[in-house]
Design a protein that fits this description.
Rossmann fold; OB fold (Dihydrolipoamide Acetyltransferase, E2P); 6-stranded antiparallel sheet; alpha+beta; about 40% helix; 4-stranded parallel sheet
Length: about 675
């Protein structure tokens, strides 16, 4: 592997139409920050570049819904995102935005260079046009009936009912969401980047030269290349974005996918000015893109093709993309508000940035989708951060205060216990370094916690609280070793838990820490005065996580109620047909689950004349069937008997379907005699 003088790290630009959530953090920002902090500890020259993506259709849609300008939307969310990242400890060297003047100029110049070199082709196509609004419609501004499943509210880019990707022209009976009118097809001309021109160079660069990339990244790239690359539009008809810098193209802007990655360059320019060429064009600079799996194609194929077309920029050395993080076994969704939002977490859990950083790293979706649950969050905090890491550090410092008044004692002769611990730490450092170098952050975190486990084991086996009764010299050696171990932990955990590390460094009185110091056991000199012991972590109670779970359940219920629509009214039924139904009231005498069936309940009904058995598929809505005994229900008495699960059912009990899919029995509002007819 080539040695580089410096490393440029970019992170996917979060879309400024909402805050960031834990899925963004686990997939992109926490791993990027871990790696940047690690390189800084090694004394390497590194930049961590971030910023907000502020153009595109979703922002215009949100602005239209709220009755404000797109600039109002991006100003609001850019500040929320930027402030949240800062408070969470994501150590950006710059966090910029794509509405800045620097970015407008940089993106325009980039486009113009490619245009002047003849790197674009122009293509004319038919697109939907709203004659009332006098504008072409982006896919999200069109709704209609899905041709695959019949959903009448499908969007022009995707049907959310069946998940099928669509083109707006695929929709049946399309409508403009701007005016409600029926759009017409009209010709429009756009610039395209001919990705097919770069197929061979990309195949060599990725498939031959970068076989070390993560399997999920390499595999997705190979799949796209195997299908054959096609030209991709770099402009679109829209009034929000960077205008196409070519005369005669008024009303057209740069497509957001083309505009956004140039933000990495413009944000670097905002930070270092003309020195940006050292970071973007010097072959001694290594570039890394930290992204989620939905951005792999853009960062491994499309953006590199843009850079190849320009011809003066470095290509990324690696793109360590992650998969998706789910929340409580359900896909995170911003539109459904099914997320843990960073700014809300910081409000609800003040001072606990490192807890979330730890849990997200431990559950990182590095090669496949993973899951976040509040119970796991609580368990990892209580059983790992508190019981292992926090417990060891607290015992080491408290015991040093107790037996040596907080002054680090000098170590005497080391025994097998100390030499074994030191060897363990040195070995763990080698493994930890290897894991970080190869972007295996989940494994790296486990190895760091193994150091804390080794420290706990050392204290348990040496028992300085017992040794102090007879041998203070030996006690001094044990506690000196424990304090040196604490110093090692402050280094090992700094990339992962920077707030904890800073607090521990302060307690130990360390001047500075570097990665080279890890594995050394003379980091805190004898005679140094320790600060007062502070708990690094505190237990999280059941009530705290239960409140978070309830918040999600409330969100899910609200979504279900908002999305619920009554079923369409069935075809007309004659009064004579209705009169054929004999609907009556019955009293439930017995109710029990049917063996070997998850859905069926067995009712014994008093119908006013005799007792009858009726089976009903409502078991999942009534988990305690015995509680129904004594209630009155409506049932259809003249359905022909039907045998289910070997039991004859003599009628049908009536129930209503709730928005969440559960069923509720239909009962009279006041007590009536069994057998009373409903009409």
């Amino acid at each position: 592997m080539k040695d580089f003088k410096r490393t440029l790290i970019t992170t996917a630009l979060p879309y400024a139409n909402g805050p960031v959530h834990i899925g963004h953090l686990a997939g992109v920002y926490v791993p990027a920050d871990i790696y940047a902090r690690y390189l800084r500890l090694r004394g390497e020259e590194v930049l961590l570049i971030g910023g907000s993506d502020e153009h595109g259709v979703p922002i215009t849609i949100k602005a239209r819904k709220e009755g404000v300008t797109p600039q109002d939307i991006v100003d609001r969310y850019h500040n929320i995102i930027k402030d949240s990242f800062k408070e969470f400890g994501i150590s950006f060297d710059v966090y910029g935005r794509t509405t800045s003047e620097t970015h407008r100029r940089t993106a325009s110049d980039f486009f113009r260079r490619l245009y002047d070199k003849g790197e674009f082709v122009e293509k004319t196509s038919l697109q939907l046009y709203d004659e009332q609004a006098q504008q072409f419609l982006a896919d999200r501004y069109v709704t209609g009936t899905c041709p695959h499943c019949g959903n009448p509210s499908a969007y022009g880019d995707q049907c959310e009912a069946c998940g099928t990707s669509l083109n707006a022209t695929d929709l049946i009976d399309p409508r403009s969401t701007i005016t409600g009118s029926v759009p017409v097809l009209r010709e429009t001309t756009h610039f395209y980047l001919p990705l097919d021109k770069w197929q061979k160079p990309l195949e060599k660069w990725i498939l031959d030269d970068h076989q070390e990339w993560k399997t999920n990244v390499y595999g997705q790239c190979k799949s796209w290349l195997d299908m054959g690359l096609q030209p991709r539009a770099v402009s679109r008809d829209l009034d929000w974005g960077i205008p196409v810098p070519v005369d005669g193209n008024e009303g057209k802007v740069l497509y957001v996918w083309f505009d956004a990655p140039i933000g990495y360059i413009s944000n670097t320019i905002d930070l270092v000015g003309d020195d940006y060429t050292k970071w973007w064009k010097d072959p001694e600079t290594r570039m890394l893109h930290f992204i989620g799996k939905d951005n792999i194609v853009f960062h491994c194929i499309v953006f590199p093709a843009m850079l190849m077309a320009d011809g003066s920029f470095n290509l990324p050395d690696n793109v360590p993309a992650n998969e998706f993080l789910n929340l409580e076994d359900d896909k995170i969704s911003t539109s459904r508000n099914w997320a843990v939002w960073l700014h809300e977490y910081l409000r609800d859990f003040p001072g606990k940035q490192d807890v979330l950083r730890y849990v997200l790293t431990a559950n990182a979706p590095e090669t496949k989708d993973n899951n976040f649950t509040w119970k796991d969050f609580q368990a990892r905090n209580n059983s790992e951060l508190v019981a292992i890491l926090g417990n060891f550090v607290n015992r080491a410092i408290v015991l040093t205060h107790k037996y040596f008044d907080g002054i680090v004692p000098a170590a005497g002769e080391l025994t097998e216990a100390e030499t074994s611990l030191i060897e363990d730490v040195k070995k763990l450092k080698e493994e930890l370094t290897e894991a970080l170098d190869t972007f295996h952050f989940r494994e790296a975190l486990r190895l760091a916690m193994d150091m804390a486990r080794a420290g706990n084991k050392y204290l348990q086996e040496t028992e300085p609280w017992k040794v102090a009764k007879t041998d203070m010299a030996r006690t001094a050696t044990i506690l000196n070793t424990a304090i040196q171990m604490c110093a090692n932990l402050s280094i090992a955990f700094e990339p992962f838990l920077p707030f904890m590390s800073a607090k521990l460094v302060k307690m130990l009185g360390e001047d500075h820490i570097t990665w080279d110091m890890l594995g050394c056991f003379d980091l805190v000199p004898a005679g140094a005065e320790l600060g007062e012991p502070e708990l690094l972590f505190e237990k999280i109670e059941d009530s705290t996580v239960e409140a978070q779970v309830q918040k999600l359940l409330d969100t899910k219920k609200a979504n279900e109620e908002a999305a619920w629509k009554p079923a369409p009214v069935k075809e007309d039924c004659s009064f004579e047909d209705f009169e054929k139904l004999d609907i009556r009231v019955g009293k439930i005498l017995e109710c029990s689950k049917v063996k070997k069936s998850k859905k069926l309940l067995r009712f014994l009904i008093d119908d006013g004349m005799e007792k009858r058995t009726i089976l009903s598929g409502i078991a999942q809505s009534y988990p305690d069937p015995e509680a129904l005994v004594g209630k009155e229900v409506c049932f259809i008495a003249n359905f022909p008997p039907r045998v289910m699960m070997g039991i004859e059912s003599q009628g049908m009990i009536m129930s209503a379907v709730n928005p969440d899919g559960t069923l509720t029995l239909i009962s009279p509002s006041a007590e009536v005699r069994p057998g009373a007819q409903v009409g």
